[in-house]
């Protein structure tokens, strides 16, 4: 579990400096971007992706379970616009702070903001995919009410859970089975999203970047960001290779990096994350040590539930 949360943090920080860049520009500036570099924030800093993931972790640990109201209030308490939140999130935070129900405060966004933060839900409910699906839907609609945005959140949470299960068994998931399971659970939310996920099984891993970019824009849309993250996990052979592939795609690199890091971290574990990447992560009041502590407490809660 620790690997998934720290992996998300690492992927967010690795992708932060090149957010919005095309793959050609990234390659021209850095070659193979496999190190933490300075961007709009110092090297190793997290963005809104990790800040919202931390809020979910805090709520799960404090409540010893999932409460969408508790998650919503943690979102408000942690909200720092300097971390790079999407344009409509400030309005959501204002409505929540003013007493609007978590069911009603969100927008009709089809963006990837629900998926980028959802890893803790996948970890907490990894043994019960039906309960996971319900919780991920509720966690998503706090901010994103469009079916694509919700489907993205549920798909990513399911991916983290399935990756964690595979990591426990020690066998890398078969892409067709992995993607098929996710597609079955999100089909009622967005049939088109589910169909595009299944299409990932035809990717040529020998030409992964071109194959992904041909199918997906790698943008802020959930349907164009979650599938690339799943592909980078499924069609690479190490945590590092998955993250380098994800960030090299360009586009919404911090979010695709965060989601790929959560998936790969869930499967490979903390031990597989390069030490220099972990050492570069920001500290402070809610930095690496704090996040790792939350993840350890979450793992303890989950252990006591089984």
Shape-level CATH architecture: Orthogonal Bundle
Stated plainly, the CATH topology is called ADP-ribosylglycohydrolase fold
N-to-C span = 15 Å
Q: What is the domain total for the residues? A: 1
Overall 3D form: globular
Q: Helix-strand pattern, N to C?
A: HHHHHHHHHHHHHHHHH
Q: Which class best fits the helix and strand makeup?
A: mainly alpha
Q: Unreliable stretches, pLDDT < 50, 5 or more residues?
A: none
* CATH classification, class level: Mainly Alpha
Evaluate the radius of gyration: 17 Å
Number of E-state strands: 0
Average of the residue pLDDT scores: 97
Oligomer: single chain
Number of helices: 17
Strand share of the residues? under 5%
According to CATH, the homologous superfamily is: ADP-ribosylation/Crystallin J1
Largest sheet: none
What percentage of residues falls in helices of 4 or more residues? 55-70%
Give an overview of the whole structure:
The protein has helices at 2-15, 23-30, 48-63, 68-78, 89-97, 113-116, 119-124, 129-141, 147-169, 175-186, 191-198, 208-215, 226-234, 239-248, 253-268, 275-280, 288-305. It is an all-alpha fold and 306 residues long. The chain has a single domain (2-305), classed as ADP-ribosylglycohydrolase fold (Orthogonal Bundle), CATH 1.10.4080. Helix 13 runs antiparallel to helix 14. The model has no long low-confidence stretch (mean pLDDT 97).
Condensed summary:
The protein has 306 residues and is an all-alpha fold. It contains 17 helices and no strands.
């Amino acid at each position: 579990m620790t690997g998934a949360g720290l992996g998300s943090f690492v992927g967010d920080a690795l992708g932060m400096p090149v957010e919005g860049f095309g793959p050609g520009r990234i390659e021209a500036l850095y070659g193979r971007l496999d190190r933490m570099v300075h961007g709009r924030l110092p090297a190793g800093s997290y963005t809104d992706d990790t800040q919202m993931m931390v809020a979910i972790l805090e709520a799960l640990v404090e409540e010893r379970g999932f409460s969408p109201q508790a998650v919503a209030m943690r979102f408000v308490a942690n909200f720092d616009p300097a971390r790079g939140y999407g344009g409509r999130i400030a309005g959501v935070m204002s409505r929540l702070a003013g007493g609007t129900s978590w069911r009603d405060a969100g927008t009709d966004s089809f963006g990837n903001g629900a998926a980028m933060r959802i890893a803790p839900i996948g970890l907490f409910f990894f043994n019960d995919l039906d309960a996971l699906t319900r919780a991920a839907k509720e966690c998503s609609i706090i901010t994103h009410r469009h079916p694509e945005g919700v489907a993205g959140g549920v798909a990513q949470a399911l991916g983290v859970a399935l990756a964690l299960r595979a990591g426990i068994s020690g066998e890398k998931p078969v892409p067709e089975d992995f993607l098929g399971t996710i597609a079955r659970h999100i089909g009622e939310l967005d049939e088109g999203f589910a169909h595009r996920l299944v299409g990932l099984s035809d990717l040529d891993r020998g030409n992964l970047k071109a194959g992904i970019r041909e199918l997906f824009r790698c943008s802020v849309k959930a349907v164009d960001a979650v599938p690339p993250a799943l592909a980078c996990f499924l069609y690479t052979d190490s945590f590092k290779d998955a993250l380098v592939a994800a960030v090299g795609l360009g586009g919404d690199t911090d979010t695709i990096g965060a989601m790929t890091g959560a998936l790969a971290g869930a499967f490979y574990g903390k031990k597989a994350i390069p030490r220099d990447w972990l050492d570069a992560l920001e500290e402070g009041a809610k930095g690496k040590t704090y996040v790792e502590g939350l993840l350890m407490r979450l793992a303890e809660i989950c252990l006591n539930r089984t």
